[in-house]
Amino acid sequence: MEKIKLAILGDSLYAGRLTECIRKNSPDYLEVYGCRSLAQLPDYLKQIQPDILLYEMETAREEKLPEYLLQIQITDNRQLCRENGLQRGRNEKSSCRQKDLKQDDAQNIRESLSRQPSVFRYQKGSEILRQIFQIYERSNKKNLSGWCRTLDLEMTAFYAPGGHELLLPISIAYAAVCGESDKVLYLNLAEFSGMAALLSDKDGKTFSDLIYGIRQKKDQFPLCLQSVLHHAEKFDYVLPPENPQDLYEVQKEDLECLVSLLQEKTDYRMVIWNCGALNRPVEQVFQCCSRVFGVVKDRSFGKYRKSEFERFLQKDLQRQLREKLQYVSPQSGSGTFVQGMDMMSQIQSGEFADQARDLLKKERD
Prior knowledge:
About 45% of the residues lie in helices and about 15% in strands. By secondary structure, the protein is α/β, with parallel strands linked by helices. The longest helix has 16 residues, at about 125-140. The protein starts with a strand and ends with a helix. The model is unreliable at about 80-100 and about 110-115 (pLDDT under 50).
Protein backbone atom coordinates (compact mmCIF):
# COMPACT_ATOMS: atom_id res chain seq x y z
CA MET A 1 0.00 0.00 0.00
CA GLU A 2 1.03 3.61 -0.47
CA LYS A 3 3.05 4.93 2.44
CA ILE A 4 1.59 7.52 4.82
CA LYS A 5 3.86 10.31 6.02
CA LEU A 6 3.56 11.71 9.55
CA ALA A 7 5.47 14.84 10.56
CA ILE A 8 5.81 15.79 14.24
CA LEU A 9 6.44 19.48 14.88
CA GLY A 10 7.94 20.69 18.16
CA ASP A 11 11.24 21.82 19.61
CA SER A 12 10.72 20.39 23.10
CA LEU A 13 12.34 17.29 24.57
CA TYR A 14 8.88 15.72 24.71
CA ALA A 15 8.39 16.15 20.95
CA GLY A 16 11.71 14.46 20.26
CA ARG A 17 10.92 11.51 22.51
CA LEU A 18 7.43 11.17 21.07
CA THR A 19 8.87 11.09 17.55
CA GLU A 20 11.19 8.22 18.45
CA CYS A 21 8.44 6.32 20.28
CA ILE A 22 5.99 6.59 17.38
CA ARG A 23 8.70 5.66 14.89
CA LYS A 24 9.49 2.54 16.92
CA ASN A 25 5.84 1.45 17.07
CA SER A 26 4.82 2.43 13.54
CA PRO A 27 3.86 -0.14 10.86
CA ASP A 28 5.83 -0.41 7.63
CA TYR A 29 3.46 1.79 5.67
CA LEU A 30 3.96 4.78 8.02
CA GLU A 31 6.99 7.06 7.66
CA VAL A 32 7.67 9.29 10.67
CA TYR A 33 9.60 12.57 10.49
CA GLY A 34 10.54 15.08 13.16
CA CYS A 35 10.62 18.86 12.54
CA ARG A 36 12.01 20.86 15.46
CA SER A 37 12.05 24.34 13.92
CA LEU A 38 8.83 26.26 13.32
CA ALA A 39 10.60 28.68 11.00
CA GLN A 40 11.66 25.84 8.72
CA LEU A 41 8.20 24.29 8.52
CA PRO A 42 7.17 25.75 5.10
CA ASP A 43 10.30 24.41 3.39
CA TYR A 44 9.98 21.17 5.33
CA LEU A 45 6.41 20.64 4.10
CA LYS A 46 7.46 21.23 0.50
CA GLN A 47 10.30 18.73 0.79
CA ILE A 48 8.59 15.93 2.73
CA GLN A 49 4.93 16.55 1.75
CA PRO A 50 3.50 14.77 4.80
CA ASP A 51 -0.11 13.57 5.01
CA ILE A 52 -0.42 14.25 8.76
CA LEU A 53 1.05 17.03 10.91
CA LEU A 54 1.15 16.43 14.67
CA TYR A 55 2.12 19.56 16.58
CA GLU A 56 2.34 20.93 20.11
CA MET A 57 0.05 23.73 21.28
CA GLU A 58 2.97 26.16 21.55
CA THR A 59 3.77 25.80 17.84
CA ALA A 60 0.32 26.71 16.48
CA ARG A 61 0.56 28.77 13.30
CA GLU A 62 -1.58 31.57 11.95
CA GLU A 63 -0.84 31.17 8.24
CA LYS A 64 -2.83 28.72 6.21
CA LEU A 65 -1.35 25.27 5.64
CA PRO A 66 -2.12 23.00 2.65
CA GLU A 67 -5.70 21.75 2.60
CA TYR A 68 -4.66 18.13 2.06
CA LEU A 69 -2.64 18.15 5.31
CA LEU A 70 -4.42 16.60 8.30
CA GLN A 71 -3.44 18.68 11.35
CA ILE A 72 -3.62 17.15 14.85
CA GLN A 73 -2.80 19.11 17.96
CA ILE A 74 -1.07 17.73 21.06
CA THR A 75 -2.73 19.21 24.12
CA ASP A 76 -2.13 18.96 27.86
CA ASN A 77 -5.86 19.43 28.63
CA ARG A 78 -8.06 16.41 28.11
CA GLN A 79 -11.08 18.63 27.43
CA LEU A 80 -9.37 20.04 24.37
CA CYS A 81 -9.54 16.66 22.64
CA ARG A 82 -12.11 16.58 19.91
CA GLU A 83 -14.84 13.99 20.20
CA ASN A 84 -13.30 11.28 18.06
CA GLY A 85 -13.96 8.10 19.97
CA LEU A 86 -11.39 8.94 22.62
CA GLN A 87 -13.87 10.35 25.13
CA ARG A 88 -16.17 8.19 27.23
CA GLY A 89 -19.36 10.00 26.35
CA ARG A 90 -21.04 13.34 25.99
CA ASN A 91 -22.34 13.45 29.55
CA GLU A 92 -18.92 12.82 31.06
CA LYS A 93 -17.30 15.31 28.72
CA SER A 94 -19.88 17.96 29.48
CA SER A 95 -19.50 17.58 33.24
CA CYS A 96 -15.72 17.83 33.01
CA ARG A 97 -15.96 21.04 31.05
CA GLN A 98 -18.31 22.58 33.54
CA LYS A 99 -15.92 21.84 36.37
CA ASP A 100 -12.62 22.70 34.76
CA LEU A 101 -13.35 25.47 32.26
CA LYS A 102 -14.97 28.85 32.37
CA GLN A 103 -17.91 29.41 30.08
CA ASP A 104 -16.04 31.80 27.76
CA ASP A 105 -13.07 29.50 27.52
CA ALA A 106 -15.33 26.57 26.71
CA GLN A 107 -16.86 28.53 23.82
CA ASN A 108 -13.42 29.31 22.42
CA ILE A 109 -12.45 25.67 22.72
CA ARG A 110 -15.56 24.50 20.90
CA GLU A 111 -14.81 26.90 18.05
CA SER A 112 -11.23 25.67 17.90
CA LEU A 113 -12.23 22.02 17.99
CA SER A 114 -14.58 22.50 15.07
CA ARG A 115 -11.49 23.17 13.01
CA GLN A 116 -8.82 20.97 14.59
CA PRO A 117 -8.70 17.44 16.08
CA SER A 118 -6.51 16.90 19.15
CA VAL A 119 -4.85 14.13 21.16
CA PHE A 120 -4.11 14.14 24.88
CA ARG A 121 -0.44 14.61 25.73
CA TYR A 122 -0.05 12.52 28.90
CA GLN A 123 -0.50 8.96 27.65
CA LYS A 124 1.64 6.30 26.04
CA GLY A 125 3.09 7.09 22.64
CA SER A 126 1.63 3.85 21.28
CA GLU A 127 -1.85 5.01 22.30
CA ILE A 128 -1.29 8.43 20.70
CA LEU A 129 -0.36 6.62 17.49
CA ARG A 130 -3.56 4.58 17.59
CA GLN A 131 -5.61 7.74 18.05
CA ILE A 132 -3.83 9.44 15.15
CA PHE A 133 -4.80 6.49 12.98
CA GLN A 134 -8.40 6.69 14.18
CA ILE A 135 -8.58 10.36 13.18
CA TYR A 136 -6.93 9.61 9.85
CA GLU A 137 -9.35 6.75 9.20
CA ARG A 138 -12.34 9.01 9.63
CA SER A 139 -10.94 11.71 7.39
CA ASN A 140 -9.84 9.28 4.65
CA LYS A 141 -12.22 6.34 5.18
CA LYS A 142 -9.39 3.81 5.50
CA ASN A 143 -9.01 0.96 7.97
CA LEU A 144 -5.61 1.32 9.63
CA SER A 145 -5.83 1.35 13.41
CA GLY A 146 -5.49 -2.40 13.87
CA TRP A 147 -1.99 -2.39 12.37
CA CYS A 148 -0.07 -0.60 15.08
CA ARG A 149 0.95 -1.45 18.58
CA THR A 150 -1.79 -0.22 20.87
CA LEU A 151 -2.44 0.23 24.56
CA ASP A 152 -5.48 -2.04 24.41
CA LEU A 153 -4.13 -5.08 22.60
CA GLU A 154 -0.54 -6.29 22.77
CA MET A 155 0.60 -8.70 20.04
CA THR A 156 3.63 -11.00 20.02
CA ALA A 157 4.77 -13.39 17.29
CA PHE A 158 6.94 -16.52 17.44
CA TYR A 159 8.69 -17.57 14.23
CA ALA A 160 11.29 -20.28 13.56
CA PRO A 161 13.44 -19.53 10.48
CA GLY A 162 13.67 -22.64 8.35
CA GLY A 163 11.79 -25.03 10.63
CA HIS A 164 9.63 -25.58 13.70
CA GLU A 165 12.53 -25.69 16.22
CA LEU A 166 10.25 -26.36 19.22
CA LEU A 167 8.11 -23.41 18.11
CA LEU A 168 4.90 -24.88 19.53
CA PRO A 169 6.03 -25.60 23.13
CA ILE A 170 7.89 -22.31 23.66
CA SER A 171 5.04 -20.21 22.26
CA ILE A 172 2.40 -22.13 24.25
CA ALA A 173 4.47 -21.76 27.41
CA TYR A 174 4.70 -18.01 26.76
CA ALA A 175 0.91 -17.79 26.27
CA ALA A 176 0.32 -19.72 29.48
CA VAL A 177 2.64 -17.48 31.51
CA CYS A 178 1.01 -14.35 30.08
CA GLY A 179 -2.39 -15.89 30.83
CA GLU A 180 -1.61 -15.91 34.54
CA SER A 181 -2.18 -12.15 34.67
CA ASP A 182 -3.96 -11.18 31.41
CA LYS A 183 -6.62 -12.55 29.11
CA VAL A 184 -4.71 -14.16 26.23
CA LEU A 185 -5.66 -15.47 22.79
CA TYR A 186 -3.30 -17.89 21.00
CA LEU A 187 -3.48 -18.03 17.18
CA ASN A 188 -1.58 -20.66 15.20
CA LEU A 189 -0.51 -20.21 11.57
CA ALA A 190 2.08 -23.01 11.55
CA GLU A 191 1.52 -25.96 9.23
CA PHE A 192 1.21 -29.35 10.93
CA SER A 193 2.39 -27.98 14.27
CA GLY A 194 0.93 -30.87 16.30
CA MET A 195 -1.29 -28.54 18.29
CA ALA A 196 -4.56 -30.40 17.70
CA ALA A 197 -3.03 -33.69 18.86
CA LEU A 198 -1.34 -32.05 21.86
CA LEU A 199 -4.57 -30.48 23.07
CA SER A 200 -6.79 -33.40 21.98
CA ASP A 201 -8.89 -31.24 19.65
CA LYS A 202 -9.23 -33.43 16.59
CA ASP A 203 -12.51 -32.28 15.11
CA GLY A 204 -12.75 -28.64 16.18
CA LYS A 205 -13.16 -25.69 13.84
CA THR A 206 -9.96 -23.94 12.80
CA PHE A 207 -8.47 -20.60 11.74
CA SER A 208 -9.85 -21.25 8.25
CA ASP A 209 -13.40 -21.21 9.65
CA LEU A 210 -12.66 -17.96 11.47
CA ILE A 211 -11.51 -16.20 8.30
CA TYR A 212 -14.46 -17.57 6.34
CA GLY A 213 -16.85 -16.38 9.06
CA ILE A 214 -15.38 -12.87 9.03
CA ARG A 215 -15.82 -12.64 5.28
CA GLN A 216 -19.44 -13.73 5.47
CA LYS A 217 -20.71 -11.96 8.60
CA LYS A 218 -18.24 -9.41 9.91
CA ASP A 219 -20.97 -7.73 11.97
CA GLN A 220 -21.43 -10.98 13.93
CA PHE A 221 -17.77 -11.39 14.81
CA PRO A 222 -18.24 -12.27 18.54
CA LEU A 223 -20.46 -15.22 17.58
CA CYS A 224 -18.07 -16.23 14.83
CA LEU A 225 -15.11 -16.18 17.23
CA GLN A 226 -16.97 -18.19 19.86
CA SER A 227 -17.78 -20.88 17.31
CA VAL A 228 -14.06 -21.56 16.64
CA LEU A 229 -12.66 -20.79 20.08
CA HIS A 230 -11.13 -23.46 22.32
CA HIS A 231 -10.08 -23.06 25.93
CA ALA A 232 -6.96 -24.20 27.73
CA GLU A 233 -6.37 -23.69 31.43
CA LYS A 234 -4.68 -20.28 31.09
CA PHE A 235 -5.51 -19.04 27.58
CA ASP A 236 -7.96 -19.32 24.70
CA TYR A 237 -6.86 -20.54 21.29
CA VAL A 238 -7.87 -21.15 17.68
CA LEU A 239 -6.51 -24.23 15.91
CA PRO A 240 -4.41 -23.82 12.74
CA PRO A 241 -5.95 -24.70 9.37
CA GLU A 242 -5.97 -28.42 8.61
CA ASN A 243 -5.04 -27.61 5.01
CA PRO A 244 -1.90 -25.37 4.79
CA GLN A 245 -3.13 -24.09 1.42
CA ASP A 246 -5.78 -22.13 3.29
CA LEU A 247 -3.04 -19.88 4.67
CA TYR A 248 -2.03 -18.81 1.16
CA GLU A 249 -5.59 -17.76 0.44
CA VAL A 250 -5.76 -15.41 3.43
CA GLN A 251 -5.87 -11.84 2.11
CA LYS A 252 -4.42 -8.74 3.66
CA GLU A 253 -7.92 -7.38 4.20
CA ASP A 254 -8.86 -10.52 6.16
CA LEU A 255 -6.08 -10.00 8.69
CA GLU A 256 -6.68 -6.26 8.92
CA CYS A 257 -10.30 -6.96 9.71
CA LEU A 258 -9.44 -9.69 12.23
CA VAL A 259 -6.99 -7.51 14.16
CA SER A 260 -9.37 -4.56 14.24
CA LEU A 261 -12.28 -6.71 15.42
CA LEU A 262 -10.18 -8.34 18.15
CA GLN A 263 -9.25 -4.88 19.34
CA GLU A 264 -12.74 -3.39 19.19
CA LYS A 265 -15.07 -6.27 20.11
CA THR A 266 -13.16 -8.48 22.57
CA ASP A 267 -11.55 -7.98 25.97
CA TYR A 268 -8.30 -9.80 25.17
CA ARG A 269 -5.20 -8.01 26.40
CA MET A 270 -2.66 -10.10 24.49
CA VAL A 271 -2.58 -12.10 21.27
CA ILE A 272 0.21 -14.62 20.77
CA TRP A 273 0.83 -15.70 17.16
CA ASN A 274 2.56 -18.96 16.29
CA CYS A 275 3.88 -18.30 12.78
CA GLY A 276 4.92 -21.07 10.42
CA ALA A 277 6.44 -20.40 6.99
CA LEU A 278 7.40 -16.86 6.05
CA ASN A 279 4.46 -16.37 3.69
CA ARG A 280 2.46 -13.24 3.00
CA PRO A 281 -0.03 -13.64 5.89
CA VAL A 282 2.84 -14.07 8.35
CA GLU A 283 4.60 -10.95 7.06
CA GLN A 284 1.39 -9.02 7.67
CA VAL A 285 1.16 -10.44 11.19
CA PHE A 286 4.70 -9.21 11.90
CA GLN A 287 3.59 -5.67 11.08
CA CYS A 288 1.00 -5.57 13.85
CA CYS A 289 3.17 -7.18 16.54
CA SER A 290 5.23 -5.19 18.99
CA ARG A 291 7.84 -7.96 19.21
CA VAL A 292 8.85 -11.04 17.24
CA PHE A 293 10.74 -13.91 18.84
CA GLY A 294 12.97 -15.79 16.41
CA VAL A 295 13.20 -19.38 17.69
CA VAL A 296 16.57 -20.93 16.69
CA LYS A 297 18.48 -23.64 18.51
CA ASP A 298 22.00 -22.52 19.38
CA ARG A 299 23.57 -25.67 17.98
CA SER A 300 23.71 -27.93 14.98
CA PHE A 301 22.08 -26.63 11.81
CA GLY A 302 20.27 -23.82 13.65
CA LYS A 303 23.35 -21.59 13.34
CA TYR A 304 23.26 -21.85 9.54
CA ARG A 305 19.56 -21.06 9.45
CA LYS A 306 20.13 -18.04 11.66
CA SER A 307 22.97 -16.70 9.48
CA GLU A 308 20.84 -16.96 6.31
CA PHE A 309 17.89 -15.34 8.05
CA GLU A 310 20.07 -12.45 9.23
CA ARG A 311 21.25 -11.82 5.66
CA PHE A 312 17.61 -11.67 4.61
CA LEU A 313 16.89 -9.14 7.38
CA GLN A 314 19.55 -6.76 6.04
CA LYS A 315 17.24 -5.81 3.17
CA ASP A 316 15.73 -2.35 3.48
CA LEU A 317 12.18 -3.68 3.37
CA GLN A 318 12.85 -5.76 6.49
CA ARG A 319 13.92 -2.84 8.71
CA GLN A 320 10.79 -3.06 10.83
CA LEU A 321 11.14 -6.79 11.45
CA ARG A 322 14.84 -6.38 12.17
CA GLU A 323 14.09 -3.87 14.93
CA LYS A 324 11.42 -6.06 16.55
CA LEU A 325 13.25 -9.37 16.41
CA GLN A 326 14.68 -11.09 19.49
CA TYR A 327 16.32 -14.50 19.19
CA VAL A 328 15.32 -17.33 21.52
CA SER A 329 17.10 -20.66 21.87
CA PRO A 330 14.61 -23.14 23.43
CA GLN A 331 15.95 -25.08 26.39
CA SER A 332 15.39 -28.76 25.65
CA GLY A 333 17.70 -31.08 27.48
CA SER A 334 17.25 -34.81 27.92
CA GLY A 335 15.02 -34.25 30.95
CA THR A 336 12.71 -31.72 29.35
CA PHE A 337 9.82 -34.16 28.93
CA VAL A 338 9.04 -37.14 31.13
CA GLN A 339 7.21 -40.09 29.60
CA GLY A 340 3.87 -40.94 31.12
CA MET A 341 3.14 -37.39 32.29
CA ASP A 342 0.76 -34.97 30.60
CA MET A 343 2.72 -33.11 27.92
CA MET A 344 0.72 -29.91 28.22
CA SER A 345 1.31 -29.73 31.97
CA GLN A 346 5.04 -30.17 31.44
CA ILE A 347 5.12 -27.36 28.86
CA GLN A 348 3.31 -24.96 31.20
CA SER A 349 5.37 -25.75 34.30
CA GLY A 350 8.77 -26.94 33.09
CA GLU A 351 11.83 -25.48 31.39
CA PHE A 352 9.82 -23.80 28.63
CA ALA A 353 7.71 -21.95 31.22
CA ASP A 354 10.85 -20.81 33.05
CA GLN A 355 12.29 -19.47 29.81
CA ALA A 356 9.00 -17.72 28.98
CA ARG A 357 9.07 -16.00 32.38
CA ASP A 358 12.61 -14.83 31.70
CA LEU A 359 11.50 -13.35 28.37
CA LEU A 360 8.64 -11.48 30.03
CA LYS A 361 10.88 -10.25 32.84
CA LYS A 362 13.36 -8.80 30.33
CA GLU A 363 10.53 -7.05 28.49
CA ARG A 364 9.17 -5.47 31.66
CA ASP A 365 12.60 -4.44 32.91
